[in-house]
Every structure is written in structure tokens, then in C-alpha cells.
Write a structure and sequence with these properties.
Structural class: mainly alpha
Strand content: under 5%
Shape: globular
Number of helices: 10
Helix content: 40-55%
Number of domains: 3
Order of helices and strands: HEHEHHHHHHHH
Largest sheet: 2 strands, parallel
Length: 241
């Protein structure tokens, strides 16, 4: 199943994350304990204390160094980027492999690269002044190292959350156009519509054609078959998409 799910919350508080995932203390608590690929947003922290496994985003770690290199020509950052480049070279090779094979290759190649990067980061941290931009970039990776390399031991995990960021980019780019939803209920409706639109696109449908057909079918669609109208199950009329 291919789907994108957006949720609307009144704030960036961590409780909204826990409610969405159904963690202990949330309104709906199925006891979910999975693996969550995230950046360093503080709202996720409590999830990891409740049994969720933190998986770091290597792209966020890399981005810290890329910005220093692009804006200031940092030689330390340039060297760091070479390590990240090697990790991503492996990922490009294994992206279409089965999970078990991907894990084996990562253990054989990526683990050595990651270990070398880790040792290099520790050494460089001792050479740069506290509070400097380079120290902060290095500190970000060192602080989250265990989470950042968790993908090496699990072939089902991605190296980063770029796929998710690509799905939410249209929302982020246009956020000023719908800054004020009007009410919590209106915000929830907007999130539901955006979930349908982006899920339709992800499943190869033209969003406007999908929504038009769904709205036409809804009045007569039996409640027991309403799931047929979901983007991943919807069949366009006359075989068109």
C-alpha cells in the first residue's frame, strides 16, 4: 500500500506526535512500538522513552556539513562530505535489492565507512573550538550516532527520511497560503484532503480526476465498500488514470 498521511495539530508539542502514533498516554493507545525515522525535533523525544526505536536521518547530519562547505569553504566539512558520499554510494547500489541482501551489503561495506567517519568526527571535535559552527555540526552527528547508524543493521530501514520530506515539501512550500485554517476542525479537514491528494498522486492517479470520481460515487457507494475509494484501491472509470 502506498499512502501519505497528514495530521493537523494546534501546536508543535510532543503530545501531538504521541497521539498520532497511539503511544501510552495518548487518546488512542494500541501499544505501538516501531521504528521512527526522524530529525532532531524535540517533539519526538518522549516517544523514544515509551518504547519507540529512534532512527536518525543521515541527510540531516550531512546537511550540517554541506552548509558549512557551501557557505564558508570549510575543509573539515569537505572531508566529512566525502565520508557521507561513500555511504550514499552504497545506498544507490542496494536500493533495489531485497532487505536481507541490502543489510548484508551494508554490514560488509557501510559499517566500515561509518566506523571511520565516527572516529574521524571524534578526532576533529577535539581540534575545533567549542561553540563554533563546525563543533555544532560535529556534535549533532556524535550526539545522535547510535540512531544515525541504526539503518546498517536493518535492511528495511532507509538511510534518511528524504522520501518523507519530498512528500511534505508541497505543504511546506505553500504553508503561507493556508496559514490560518480557521479552526481545529477545518485544519483536520485540510489534512485529510491533502492526504487523499498526495496519496492519489503517489499511486499514479491524477488528483483532480480521482477526487471528481470519488465525489460522484460517494452518494451511492455502500458504506461496506467505502474502502474501494481509497487512493491505493481506487479503479478509475474506463481504465483512465
Amino acid at each position: 500500500m502506498k499512502a501519505v498521511v497528514f495530521d493537523f495539530a494546534e501546536s508543535r508539542g510532543g503530545q501531538h506526535v504521541r497521539d498520532f502514533l497511539g503511544l501510552p498516554g495518548s487518546e488512542h493507545n494500541p501499544g505501538w512500538k516501531g521504528k521512527l525515522v526522524t530529525d532532531d525535533f524535540s517533539g519526538y523525544k518522549a516517544c523514544f522513552e515509551l518504547g519507540v526505536t529512534e532512527v536518525g536521518c543521515m541527510a540531516h547530519a550531512r546537511r550540517k556539513f554541506h552548509e558549512l562547505w557551501a557557505n564558508h569553504g570549510s575543509q573539515v566539512s569537505e572531508q566529512a562530505l566525502k565520508f557521507f558520499q561513500k555511504l550514499y554510494e552504497v545506498e544507490r547500489e542496494v536500493q533495489d535489492r531485497p532487505a536481507q541482501e541490502r543489510q548484508a551489503i551494508r554490514k560488509d561495506r557501510s559499517e566500515q565507512i561509518a566506523d571511520a567517519l565516527h572516529q574521524w568526527l571524534i578526532q576533529q571535535r577535539q581540534k575545533v573550538p567549542d561553540g563554533s559552527a563546525t563543533a555544532k555540526a560535529i556534535g549533532y552527528s556524535l550526539k545522535r550516532w547510535k540512531a544515525l547508524v541504526r539503518f546498517i543493521d536493518d535492511g528495511d530501514l532507509p538511510i534518511d527520511n528524504n522520501w518523507v520530506e519530498n512528500q511534505i515539501r508541497p505543504i511546506a512550500i505553500g504553508r503561507n497560503n493556508w496559514l490560518f485554517a480557521g479552526s481545529l476542525r477545518a485544519g483536520k479537514r485540510a489534512a485529510a484532503i491533502m492526504s487523499l491528494v498526495h496519496s492519489a498522486r503517489l499511486n499514479g492517479h491524477e488528483p483532480s480526476a480521482y477526487l471528481r470520481d470519488v465525489l460522484e460515487r460517494l452518494p451511492t457507494q455502500p458504506a461496506s465498500r467505502i474502502d474501494e475509494l481509497l487512493p491505493h484501491r481506487w479503479q478509475p472509470p474506463n481504465g483512465t488514470r
